[in-house]
User: What shape does this take?
Amino acid sequence: MVIKEQPKFDSRNWDNTNAELFNWLDAQWIDITDPESPNDDLRIQGFEKGATLFARGEGIHWADGELYFCCTNGGNKKFGQIFRYQPNSGDNQNGRIQLFLESEDDSLFNFGDNLTVTPQGHLLVCEDAYTDTVNNHLRGVTPNGELYNFARLRTQTEPAGACFSPDGSTLFVNVYSPTKTLAIQGPWKRIKTNKV
Assistant: This one.
């Protein structure tokens, strides 16, 4: 993906703020010459053709006509970012992208990875920071980009693969170690119903 009129755009914001919160950027797609990539060089091929740089892209989720994905160590403080992409939006046949969230405080959001959308339209993000302090959370993100704590793991492990049952009544979350899958039924109606 190339940001129109800004080839080799650096969305990571590590040194400078290039991607601004909630600012939509027009995007277009490029073809890769050697997609089989036997030399593991897809990112290099793309960047040479003007593709955007993202920081450690991980979790991705399609929701109601748009796509969300995490950049685990993106942002000026390297605590993580979430981007929102809308294909074929309005007059733009190639789509548009925005920085939806960038963490400035690791106690609010740290190394977001897998994510899903709740039946009420909020994002639910699994953190995967491995630090001396056991503090990985499931974080909620409102449609306005506001963060809230949903749950915290008390063991040094990573939650992953969050998804809801088809009827929206049960949240499934995998835990890496000790290996298990949790089925969580809760008062989901307490979550505000504003759609993302």
